[in-house]
Every structure is written in structure tokens, then in C-alpha cells.
Amino acid sequence: MSSSSAFNDEKGGSSSVGEPEYGHDPASGGIFSSDYKRHDDLKEMLDSNKDSLKLEAMKRIVAMVARGKNASDLFPAVVKNVACKNIEVKKLVYVYLVRYAEEQQDLALLSISTFQRGLKDPNQLIRASALRVLSSIRVTIIVPIMMLAIKEAASDMSPYVRKTAAHAIPKLYSLDPEQKDQLIEVIEKLLADKTTLVAGSVVMAFEEVCPERIELIHKNYRKLCNLLIDVEEWGQVVIINMLTRYARTQFLNPNINESLLEEGGEKEFYASDDDEDDEEKKAEAAALAKRKPYVMDPDHRLLLRNTKPLLQSRNAAVVMAVAQLYFHLAPKAEVGVIAKALVRLLRSHSEVQYVVLQNVATMTIKRRGMFEPHLKSFYIRSTDPTQIKILKLEVLTNLASETNISTILREFQTYIKSMDKDFVAATIEAIGRCATNIGEVRDTCLNGLVQLLSNRDELVVAESVVVIKKLLQMQPEQHSEIIKHMAKLIDNIQVPMARASILWLIGEYCEHVPKIAPDVLRKMAKTFTNEEDIVKLQILNLAAKLYLTNSKQTKLLTQYVLNLAKYDQNYDIRDRARFIRQLIVPTDKSGALSKYAKKLFLALKPAPVLESPFKDRDHFQLGSLSHLLNTKAGGYQELPEWPDSAPDPSVRNVEVPEWSKCTSRKERKEKKVEKPFYSDSEGESGPTESADSESDSGSRSESDSEQTGSGSESEESVEESQSEEEEDEEEEKMKKKKKVDKSQPKKSESAESKIASEIQFLLSTSVAPTSSPQVTPVNNFLSSSLASDLEGLSLTDTVLAPTTIAPSASVRMYELLHRITGEGLGVEYCFNRQAFSPDPHMVAVQIHFTNNTSCETKNLHIEEPKLQSGMRIKEFPEIDMLPAGESVSVVMGIDFCDSTQAANFQLCTHTRKFFVSIQPPVGELMTPIFLTENEFKKEQTGHN
Amino acid sequence: MISQVFILSSQGDHLIYKDCILMHYSQENSLDLYLKLVGITILLSVQCPQRNKNLNFIHVRHSGLYWVVSTKDNPSPFTIIEFLNRLAALTKDYCGSLSEKSVRMNFALIYELLDEMVDYGYIQTTSTDILKNFIQTEAVTSKPFSLFDLSNVGLFGAETQQSKVAPSAAASRPIVASHGEQVRKNEIFVDVVERLSVVIGSNGVLMKADVEGEIRVKCYLPTCSEMRIGLNEEFSIGKSQLRGYGAAVRVDECSFHQAVKLDEFDTYRILKVCPSQGEQTLMQYQLSDELPCAPPFRLFPTVEKDYGSRLLIFLKLRCDLPPKSVAINVSVTVPVPKGSLSLSQELSSPEQSAELQPRSKAVLWTIPRFPGGAQLSAVFKVTLGFNAHGLYSVRSASLLEVGPISMSFELPKYTCTGLQVRFLRLSPTQPGLSQRWVRYVTHSDSYTIRI
């Protein structure tokens, strides 16, 4: 510090060092110093030995760069410091280098060796930053060095360095596109990376370098879906956009079989939206016989399910990305979930509001029902900026329907009083649009608009006249009163557009106002010369029309007007006058056309269509810049259309790892990871509890043929079944109960019915065991150790672990016998929450034995249960032998009689007996059942 | 993909300029063209991406500065807007306060930040925790922090009325303490900010009421320790759920920052979070259509026509806050007919003022301080002038032109929903001094009374 101040004194500096005044040009030491000299002092500082001086100089240089001043002539002096030990200085030198390296290529090469050394540094941050700067130096000579560095970094240990490598790929690609093939190899390698840090960056690189190589995604698709929630937010946006495109090419349109999906009957809501639907349904009915019902690809479902929780993100970009994904990919019935999230964004900055409203406006045209419940959120606030007000108005107009029109109109009424004139004009137009769209309110609107004609504000009146003109065109016969009223207004209204509109209206419907029309023409003839061009043209039109219908009264007037127009300054008006004269005034030479004059002028004109300016926006992908601008921005990629037939879904399959084979025991036909009901972390999952976790049909295909043979019907119900329930009200239990009974196997039925009468039922009070032996039981057993395995593997596996906000924790394990007290035999148990097939009243308890001794344990079985009255135990089959170091899982059933009393029994081996007890937590005394999606929804709506 | 980033002063001067992808044409070419096209006055209105040749510009406005990004291709506009908002927030965190001056003093720092956040046009990270590892430059603050400034603690979140409330210097300093500073203040600020938007019908019926609230934390703690914020135990979300015996504090919807741990929220209403340095919003909540208390202000207007060309407006304003609370910076805007020429008023105390704003044609009545339970009245006589057709006579139409009255105000130490922070604990307790501040304020977002 002291030295630098001394330096400044020397220079007679204008600023003291303690308080550098960057407000002025930081480098201008003195008034008289020339450019050349000015940089001299900085060079001197950079050459000094003191870090503090160097730092000061670098700060000033970077400040110059930041302000856009040219500092390139300092390059040699700066580049010398690239090897500086001081990290602060080094950092700023890097910043400078990245900016100017391209301009000073030869000198920049001097620094390369420093970065190459940096790439070998043990510190990951230094490695990453060296790679970053190296790849930012845009000098073609070093392309091979960059390529090498990227390849090396792509297999670095540190995910942060790998992420930087991914970022470097598009940089190198833009520098030298010929490296594409090699770069794609690196991308392919990085795509297989399992860390969340890398995922976002590599997809960015993929999108930049080779978006057409969609096949690279196949193998990583499921991994990306599962990782998505943990990727940092900017990466999420990129991945979601990429996956949207991917899904459009790989899956079938979920709305293709509308009628089939909507069998549930609750969705007529959306059905009325599109006219296409009806046609589609008709076609559907015909094709129904031969076409297979649409079944959503499990991978498609996976994508929808894993993106849903992201609607809660605090990053608006992520929310919008998910919203557009749902809008473009989800079945119509499910799109509704995004409405709430988008409405939430409306509470954000006005910039965000603006973009959200643009998107909402487009969506409301296609899917009105989606936003109808949120109507109030679009009411205008006095503090909104005009552009936002107008967009909200647009949304409100799109949402107007027979049911809510009265509320909306009342709201509009108050808007007209606003001080913001543009907004008032837009409101009046919106009223006009509501009136055209909804027949019932047309008269009300018209009357309201006519009242506005007496408003003091000319703009309001003018806008009303224009809108009334459009409305009247639809049914002029009934409204001659209004036309008369408007004829009177011509004396007062000065706005040319409004005057023109009135004149046109009177001319068009002159037979409805036969007495007034000639009089208006008379007045207009008087003021003709002072009118605006647009009004003059309409006066000519009016004269011509009157001449044709009522020539007796208006012949002279018309002649007079035509003569005036003949000498007008504007050639359009002169032309028009000549044209009209030839057409309507019969002369000797008049051609054949004049016979048709009446038809020409008084032809029936089609009513104008008042439609939303957002009507044609939806061909742009929502949430993109192109959509916002309504023109193609550079690099815009069209969202591909759905394919007609689904490409092979098996391309996404990843090799089945070992564990899934070894577990295919008798009972474990289905592998499935379940979300815990009452795990400790439930609080966190709060907002996304509705996220459905469905049974995995991807692995279903691997299950035994015995099951798939049980008919397509049951297969479908498995597909749709929900494995997650949050409600445990009585009535729901009953339903569950019945369901479960249905899926009981036949063999246990007789045993069960014997006891059924004597015992109190576990979960419900009245249940009759039903027999439906055709349906194969779906038992989803999964040992807890496997569950934890699954978690680790779920990134690559075919098993689709439901990744929601809640961590997919495995079922909790309780200790039954510690391995020390058990003399080497460790026993744990857990409630696996599956149906216990031999007896529906029993709770399935999974017991996991581990033999930690060096010799084998034999004859593991249960003895002497000491139970409370009513409680029953179904023992597991005796385990003959458990070799040393191995472990095994079995399932036993316990009927706890709805109590939390412990079940005590003895666990016996061939040498010893251990007293153990199992006490159930309250939350585990439940029966799992399967519900179809529709049933589940019905339950949910019933309770909430 | 971002091509360039600019920070402009309110006059349109370039403060910061960064080329993310070298564009081969100088900034003057692109930005000046943009300014010429858009014009600084249009810049002032709500932004939207402006299109200009191949470049698209998107900008937002924060603290009187324009944050502009240009892009050549087709990114999601949300990404850009969100990025700019984060950039502004981070600049504020790192420089202490956000103003032209602070940006000017910290060119190097902000440039370094930008360099870390955007790599070749791709957003790398915006998280303070990660950036902390990379940023080397220290912030230069305009004035040293002193405790005396705490006497008029304002809210760092209070953007709407910032000019009227002195921003608290306590909460506006860089999050990273400079190495020279001897005493590192371990402070944490928790603000509960609510914005109220109300529409009252002409018959005095509450037509619409919305409260948007948030809990913000600004943390200066160097090490990450867990913080527990206890809210009212009666706090309930949604209509069905009711808790406790007292008057429930109810909100419709609640969303949390992703770092907030909610495992104790369901039972004890405790938010657990390890705040990272800087400012962040922990929780946002909304309450619509229903206020737990009466709306803070009731207005009883009467509009009459006087003889000739005068309009008489009687306003009686009642503050329905509890007696201990006070509203400050209250202003009432009464739109009057377009032809209004002059105003004469009768107000109840000298500290109030009223004027006719010639441009917007509205009477602005300002009340600096308005205690709860008090009632004020005012009479405005508006003289109407001439129009093109001659003298304005007071017709019934001009009575209609007295539009909906809007109010703006600020209620310190008061929340409409009744949300309170019961306690604020840090665990493990910080060694040395750690100060915790909890502040409350309610702002009017849009308070409209129709007549």
C-alpha cells in the first residue's frame, strides 16, 4: 500500500490509493498524459516485483475492459504475469487473457505452457480453470492441444473438471468445426457420466454440437430422467428442452386415442375444447375395433413423472421448461398441473410476468379449461404496467365463457375508468371480442358500448365506435336505433377512424335508416374539404351507396361530392371519385359494369372475425424466444411432430445387471421400488406427494411368462396401478380391502375362510372374501438390501425408481437380533408393505438373516410364539442351511389385530434359541392395494 | 446462449460490458443501434426482448440500472431474465448495495463475477456458495459500516418505497468481509415482507384481497451453521387445515427455497435451513380472497357537483389498524376529470399535503404518518376548465370520471396474515458475537377503492 501511494505521489496522481476513484477513467493518471504514456504507468506497475502493485494495475486494466475500453496494447505486459504466484493477480490475468487472446494470437501462445502445467495441478479448481482459459483462447494453432486437454479432462477424477471439459466442447467446436467427430466421441463418453454436475453441461454441449445425433441419448435417457431433480437449475432447463425434443421423436402422441383415455368420464372438461376431438372420436369409434388401445410408453411416463416436482422450482426458467414439456408431451388430462405453477410465476418480477402471460395467452387458446379456475389471478391491478395489463386482458378474453362472462364483463367495466388510455382502448376491444365469441351477451355488450359513446373521452368513444361497427355487421337488422344514435355522434366525434366507421356503417345499412342517411351526407358534403383522407373515402362510398338506393333525394349531393373529390389533392381520392362516377352515373358510354353497380357496392359483406393475436403462435415451441417474438429466432429448431408408430423402445434398455436375476425367487416375480409411506422424510415430500409412482412396466416385460399370460386386461391394471397411498380413512380401507381380496390366490382361500368367521378382521370391519381366481397375484417383494442396491443402481437400471423430491429411501430396517447376542447370527426385519398373499389380514414382515459366523447355521425356524389374544403368526418355511457369510431373506405374516402389541416368539437354530419380539409401528398396519389411476384420482378428490 | 452482457446506467451509459462470444463487431455497433432503436424512454417501460438484425436483446431493470443481454440464437427468455435477476442479486450481495456508484467502484469484481458465471455464453452457476471459491477481488464500499445507521432500519426488500425509507446500511454491505476488516460482524437478518393488494367496491364491500408474503434472510455468517426459524404454531396452510386454539394464521399456498428442511415444519412449524451467505427468499406464501383482519384503510367518499364548474370531493379516511400500529407514507390518489384546472383543499393537519397533478389529472393526498384507529377527513374542490366545445359544465358524466381511488402505504412492524417469527436460533451457537434481527413490514401493492 505504502509503496503504491508513493508511486502515486511521484506521478502527482489525482487519486489517492486508499480510495481509488474508478468513477473517472481509472487509467488517466494526469490530465496531460497521452494514451501512450497512460499505459506506460500500468506497464511499469505490472513489471514491478510487488504483488500489491501488480494487483492494483490489473484491477485498473480489468476495469477498463469491463467498461469496453480498449486495453489490447497492454497484452505483452499482462501476459508475462500469467505465471504469477499471487492468486488474485493470476485470476485477473486470466480474465484479461480470455478477452484479448484472439486479437494477439502470437503473444497468447506464450501463455499456453502455463496452462498446460495447470492442467496437471493436483488442485481440481486449478485444473478446471486452466482448461477453461485454455479453451477460451481462440487461436487455431492450439486446436490439437485443446483437443487433447479436453479428452484428458473428460476422464478426470473430479466431476468439476469433467464439467469444465463439457463446457469446453462447444468452444472448440466453434473454433474448428472439423473436430466434430472427435468431439462427439467425448460427448458420448461424458453423456454416460453419472454425476449430476456433468449432466447439464454435457447436454448443453450435445445441443450445440450434434443435436441431430438423437441416438446418443437412448442409452442415457432413463439416467437423465432420474438425475434431473438433482442437476443444478441451469442444466435442468437445457436437459428438459432436449428431452422434450427427444420424446417427440420417440413416443406416440398420448392424445391420439382421446376417447379411450377419457373413459373415466371426468374429463369432458377438455373434450369440448377442440373441434378436432369430435372428429377424432368419430374416427376412433370406427377404428376402435382394430386399433390397440393406447398405452403410454413407460419411459414417456417416467419423463412426465420426474419433471413434475420441478414445477416447484424457484427458478422461473425451470418452471417454464417443465410447463412447455407438459404442454407438448402430456396427455390432455394431465396438463392441468402446470396451470398452478404458471400462475405462481405471475407473482414474480414484471419481466417474468410479461413472458409468462405471453405463454399463458397462447395456452388459453388451445386449452381454456386449464386456466379457468385461476381466472381471478389474471385480474388487472392498478400497479401493473400497461403491457402486462394488455396481456392479462388478452388472457381474460380467451378465458371468457358462458359461465363466467358476467364476472369478466363487470371487471371490464371498471377497467374502462382507468386513466391509462391505451389500456381502456384495449379493454373496449376485448369487450367486442367477448361479444362476438359468446352470443348470449352480444346485446348486453352492445348496449354497454353504446353507453360509452357518451363518454367524454374521445379515444374511448372512437374505439367504441370501431368495435360497435364490427359487432353490428353481424346482425344489423335489429339495431337501427344504434345506427341512428351513431349518426348523431358524427357532429362531435373528431377521431378520423371513428368518423369513417360511422359513415361506412350508415352507408352499408342505409336502408335501415332511410331518412337519416341523406342528411348525414348533406352534412358531410359541407365539411368534405376539411376531412381526413380516410373520412373522405368513406364519404364517397356513402354517396355512391345512397345514389344507388335513393337516387331521387341524393343525386345532386352525390354529384357535388364527386366534383369536390375530382379536384382533391390526394390521388387516391381522385381515382376513387372517377371510378365511382363511371360506375354509377349512367352515361352513353357506360359499359356493362354499371348494370352491376348495385351488386358491386351493396354486396353482402362477411362479418369480421375478431380473433386473438395469439392464435397462430402455438406453432412455435412454448417458452422459446421465437415464441415471444413471434418470428423465428436464429437457431430455432422446430419441435418435431409425433411419429405415427413408435420407434423401438428397447433401444433405451440398458444391460440388466446381475442382481435382478439372482433375486427371481419363487415369489419375487416383480421388482419394484416403492416410496415409503411414512418415512421420516415425509415432510420434505409434502408438495409433491401427488406425484404418482406407478409400477414399473419396463421390468414387467422381464417377468415370468406365467404372468404375462394372464390376459391383457390384468396387464393394463398393473400398468396403471398406484403403489402409493396416503389416505387411511376407513372407507378407503374398505375399498382397498376388497381390491386386495380380489387378488388373493385360490390356494389360501379355504384356509382363510375357516378362520375368517372367528377372528376380528385386521383392517376392516366387514369384508367378505371374494374369489377371483383368474387374476394372478402381483406380489412385489423386495428385500431391503436390494432396495438399497436399487437406489444405487437406479441411474442405469431398467428399474424406474420413482425419483421425486423425497429421497427414495428404502424401507426402514429394524433389528431383531444383534449379531453379538445372536452369536454371529444377525437378524433384521422390515415391513415391506406388500400384500401377504397367504392371508390378507396379516402384515408381511420380511426377515433378513445374516450369518456372520465361520460355520454354517442350520434349521432356522420359529417356535413357541407368545401372542396376545387374537394375534396370529404365519411362520416362514424353515431354512435348512445358511452357509457362513451368506444372508437370506424370508417373509412371514403376522396378524397384529390392529394393535401395536409386540409379537414374541423364539427363533431357533440347530444349536440355540433366541427370544425375540416384533413390534409394529402404527403406520405399518396397512394393506397395500392396487388402484387404477382413475380410481386413485376419484379417491383423492373425495377426500381433499 | 448469451452473446453479450451489459450493465447500463439510467442515462444509458455503459457501466459494464462483456463479450461472451467475441462477436467481431464492436459494442457500439450493437448496443448503440439498440439504444437508437429502442430509445432510452421506451427502455423505461416494461422490457421485452427487442429484435435487431440477428441479435435479440433482453433487459430487466433493477435499482435504476439496466441489465441487458444480447443473444444470437433461441434461448428460453426465462433463462435470460432469470439470469439477469440473479446477476443483479449477486452483484448486490457482493458489492453491498446496488447503485450506479457501487457498480462503478467495483468494475473488476463484477467483471470477475460475470466471468465465473458465464462461460462462452453458457450459464455455469449462480450459486453464492460455489462462486465464493473463485472470486478473489474484494468489494469496495462507499462508506464504512456504522452501527448508528441501525437507528432507522429499513428493509432491504423494500423496493417500492426505497426513496422514502433510508436503506439500512446494516443490511447493505458486501457479504464477503474484506481482509482488512478487523471485526467480522456475524449478523443475520430475517425479514417478513408482505404485499397487500385489495379492491374495495363502491358499496364498501371487500371485493378482492390478496396478500403475498415472503420470508427473506440475509446472512453474513461466514460458516454455515443451521438456523431454525420458528413460525406461529397456529400457522396453517390451505382451507381445511386448522391448528391450535387461538386465531389461526392461515395462508393458501406456501413454497419454500429448496435448501429449507421441513421435517419439523409439520408438527412444530419450524423451518430449518443452512443459509448460504447473501440474500435469499426462504419462503413465499399467498393468501387470497380473505383477510384475517379488516383491511387497513376504509374510505368514505362523497362526490358532489358544486354550482358552476366545480366539483366537491369529500373524503373520510379511517385507519383500521390496531391502535399501537401506525401507517407511514400514506398517499391517496383520486383521479379527477380531464378538464380539471385547479384545486383547493381543506386538510385536517399541516403535515398533510394535497396537490393536483397536472399530467395524470389526479389529486394526490399525502399523509406522512397515520396511527391506527384514527380518522382523517379532507375536502377537495376541483375547478373544471374549458374544452374545445366551450365551458365544461359539471354534468353527471364528469362525476363518473372521478375514478377508482388508489392508495399506497407502508405498515412497519405489522403483517396482515399475522405471521410472526417465534424464535430464531442458530445451532451450534456461533462463537463470538452473532446478532440476529427480525423485521416485519407490509406494503401496499395495489389498494384500490372504487367509487
UniProtKB/TrEMBL annotation, chain A:
- Basic and acidic residues: compositionally biased ranges: 664-677, 741-752
**According to the lineage, what is the superkingdom?**
Eukaryota
Q: Tell me the GO BP annotations in alphabetical order.
A: intracellular protein transport; vesicle-mediated transport
Topology with respect to the bilayer: Peripheral membrane protein
Question: In this protein, which residues make up the domain named AP-3 complex subunit beta C-terminal?
Answer: 755-901
Which segments does the entry list as coiled coil? none
Where is the protein found, in the record's own terms? Endomembrane system
Main localization (coarse): membrane
Q: Where is the composition biased (Polar residues)?
A: 1-17
- The regions listed as transmembrane in this protein's record are none
Family matches, as Pfam families: Adaptin_N, AP3B1_C
Q: Where is this region: Disordered?
A: 1-34, 636-655, 662-753
Q: In the UniProt record, which is one GO cellular component term?
A: endomembrane system
Is Membrane among the key words of this record?
A: yes
Compositional bias of type Acidic residues: which residue ranges? 713-731
Q: Which UniProt keywords apply?
A: Membrane, Protein transport, Transport
Report the sequence similarity comment from the record: Belongs to the adaptor complexes large subunit family.
Kindly provide the name given to this protein in its UniProt entry.
Answer: AP-3 complex subunit beta
**Native organism:** Electrophorus electricus
Gene field: AP3B2
UniProtKB/TrEMBL annotation, chain B:
Where's it found, cell-wise?
Early endosome; Golgi apparatus, trans-Golgi network membrane; Membrane, Coated pit
Q: How does it sit in the membrane?
A: Peripheral membrane protein
Main location class: other
CDD domains to which the protein is assigned, alphabetical: AP-4_Mu4_Cterm
> Domain named MHD: which ranges?
185-450
Q: Which GO terms describe its cellular component?
A: clathrin adaptor complex; clathrin-coated pit; early endosome; Golgi apparatus
Single biological process term from Gene Ontology: vesicle-mediated transport
Q: Does the keyword Transport apply?
A: yes
Which family does the similarity line name? Belongs to the adaptor complexes medium subunit family.
Name of the protein in question: AP-4 complex subunit mu-1
Look up and give the organism this protein is from.
Electrophorus electricus (Electric eel)
In the record, what lineage is assigned to the organism producing the protein? Eukaryota, Metazoa, Chordata, Craniata, Vertebrata
